[in-house]
Amino acid sequence: MKKLLCAVFAAITIGILVNLYISNIKPNTAPGNECSRTYVFGEVDGYVACFEKGESKPFLITKKRVSELPELDREMLSGGIEVHGARAVSRGLEDYCS
User: Fold this and answer.
1) Residue 50 near residue 91 (C-beta atoms within 8 A)
2) Which of 36, 52, 74, 96 is the most buried (most CB within 10 A)?
3) Model pTM above 0.70
């Protein structure tokens, strides 16, 4: 059940990111290129969160406690993990939520 909820959550997140991306497409963006936006996984109040790079407020806070993650992941999150594009955000959510 937990994996199903994470999969649904990831699918919804992808939809939101795609809508955000489509609404902000620049005319000089080459078709077929993955989103060039950079996102940062980090921590908010002990939970895994995702920010658009340069923003102070996350657009997504998961229900996954950072304390439940392996030590290496916790250390990396404390410094922020940059990913590029909506697909990478989706993969990150799958990794942290499963």
Assistant:
1) no
2) 96
3) no
